[in-house]
Amino acid sequence: MSLFKARDWWSTVLGEKEEFDQGCLCLADVDNTGNGQDKVIVGSFMGYLRIFNPHPVKTGEGTQAEDLLLEVHLRDPILQVEVGKFVSGTEMLHLAVLHSRKLCVYSVSGTLGNVEHGNQYQIKLMYEHNLQRIACNMTYGSFGGVKGRDLICIQSMDGMLMVFEQESYAFGRFLPGSLLPGPLAYSSRTDSFITVSSCRQVESYKYQVLAFATDADKRQETEQQKLGSGKRLVVDWTLNIGEQALDICIVSFNQSASSVFVLGERNFFCLKDNGQIRFMKKLDCSPSCFLPYCSVSEGTINTLIGNHNNMLHIYQDVTLKWATQLPHVPVAVRVGCLQDLKGVIVTLSDDGHLQCSYLGTDPSLFQAPKVESRELNYDELDIELKELQKIIKDVNKSQGVWPMIEKEDDLKVSAMVSPNFDSVSQATDVEVGTDLVRSVTVKVTLQNRVALQKAKLSVYVQPPLVLTRDQFTFEFMDRNPDGIPRVIQCKFRLPLKLICLPGQPSKTASHKLTIDTNKSPVSLLSLFPGFANQSEDDQVNVMGFRFLGGSQVTLLASKTSQRYRIQSEQFEDLWLVTNELIIRLQEYFEKQGIKDFACSFSGSMPLQEYFELIDHHFELRINGEKLEELLSERAVQFRAIQRRLLTRFKDKTPAPLQHLDTLLDGTYKQVIALADAVEENQDNLFQSFTRLKSATRLVILLIGLWQKLSADQIAILEAAFLPLQQDTPELGWEETVDAAISHLLKTCLSKSSKEQALNLSSQLSMPKDTSRLKKHITLLCDRLAKGGRLCLSTDAAAPQTMVMPGGCTTIPESDLEERSVEQDSTELFTNHKHLIAETPIPEVSSLQGVSE
């Protein structure tokens, strides 16, 4: 940022919502007063032509009514304005206005006023040319060395140069290989036109070559007629600059030499007449306009360059001499003489901010006021610090980082799930195997009592469920007086039939769970009315479920005991049906007015099956890292072979390839195969992580039923076991869960100060194996079985005084301690085979009648 700002001498804003570009600004004595005072001429894309004569009473004041000499609406968009000797028979200056399909030349004159309103100005159309092609820009000069008049050359959008000798059309020529038009300028010293083609090279064409070349209007004639009508258009010289040009300016401050200045997108070039580079300057900021305006010392040229950082830089050749800050981004800059003030810088922005300024040396600095010094009272500071610490401690105990909105607050969010599925499924994949994927509409309602700002609604569902849209932004949001964004949550349940269909019950299964209740069993037909046909016996005690994709789950209800059994071939498939069963049982007994209903789990914790899913997920992560490392090696090898081949091809003396092409083809096939393997592994990893999350939720559910945990304790378990929504290469599920469980074991579940002194690693990294994680999960269940309780209060770090049966050892860190813990925990957590061999429910035989 510059220390100095451009000193505002006069400024105004043109119109409303008008647009301007670099050709819309011009400074000249357009009314031919002869006193050397320039007028500011501005044309807009809305068709307005304005002429200003700034004369502020006080420096920095805005525009006065008499500053605007003329304002005319020409209807057509104005692309460029120029002032020159465009009318034959006179050397007076006239105004040329370029429209997209028309070129108009006007005479600007003023009439002395007889009253206090001042002089009156008007324009008169001298002549106009209707263009057959859409114009892009124009330039003017004494083409061919004519004296006392200026000719005009217009470049069309398709690359045609049209030359007008004042009131008459001279000729038109197509530039060879033109694709998009570039900036155009005329050099009077070499009598040539200079432009930048779409090939990103500066090209120079002699006027004499253009005049005698083949006429553009005869391009459709035969080849013989072409040869007889003129010469072929050839370029004088070219220079490749490697970037598109924004503008071209040709200056000659002495008669000995002239320079061609080209402003690129990243660089600034100065060329000689023959196309050789005098110098170039790499710019730090993206430029928007430029103007070479004077030569202070012999052999140097000063240039103004504006950029998109609201800055105006002054360079002497390649040396930065001054930098000043503007209130806008300039798209056009000119230097002129206004009200006897020479060197006034006139800038124009794309939205119509017109400013006349000069370079000042009085910086605009802000000086902070002095603060009253007073002695510090340390006793009062200590009291205030203790009060703030108490407030922070109370807040941490009662709520999380983001304060939750109370029910009776300014914003309410409710969600309603449609009872029926969509008639036309909105799923991207309509079929999964032979099953149709259905969709359901969820209506989310936001109710606010006061005006809010910037509300963002996020909807999340667990994979493999997907949303058609998960983010909504509204222009209102509730913020409390402290400035902290407040959060409100709303949970909703989706229908089970969205991913589950009625299926055939199975007699046998590899994985079984038994849920105990304290009430008589309920008919499964009343709990799951959409998953069984109405039979004569309303006490349906067996029901089958089939997930999309083919997995089967069987639910059995005992007739004599208060038990329910869930069984399936896949361990992770048990969670959804088990969770849905418990929720529907609780809702059923609440409707009956029974409040003491409870569920429990008395079987062995199925940790072995859970560990198998953890090992499979971790194995896929290891495999993914190996594949990516191998892919990186093959990519490096592929690039090395490419470099070798390129060197051989560039060599002037041909040499044998020595089977490099065969090696390149083989490496390419390996890269493609490895990339496919990486994608396949990522898909498998995503599916494995989804299964692992389902199994994790099942384990959390069973631990809660087993130890009769409260809702807060279950929330702690969920935060520890399900910290991530998805795996990332930088942070995986295993190391995150291991760190969370280790923290619980050394805080609320610890029994000695030795465990609390253990330091956890501050950096999470991918472990070598899952043995440590499985050991900590087993130890967590062991501590809970012996009376440990989960909590997050600050007092939980203190050693617990409760007496636990059998004692509890510290977290093992050595192999000997690990073996002792594993031997100690085998009595409680047995192998998964124990689940299959558990005592059967008496009603298993009823499956025989249903299987038909």
From TrEMBL:
Residues 1-363 form the PTHB1 N-terminal domain. Residues 495-602 form the PTHB1 platform domain. Residues 437-479 form the PTHB1 GAE domain. One of its GO terms (cellular component) is BBSome. Keywords: Coiled coil. It comes from the Eukaryota. It holds the Pfam family PTHB1_pf. Residues 604-707 form the PTHB1 hairpin domain. Residues 709-784 form the PTHB1 C-terminal helix bundle domain. The keyword Phosphoprotein does not apply. Residues 371-398 form a coiled coil. This is Bardet-Biedl syndrome 9. The gene is BBS9.
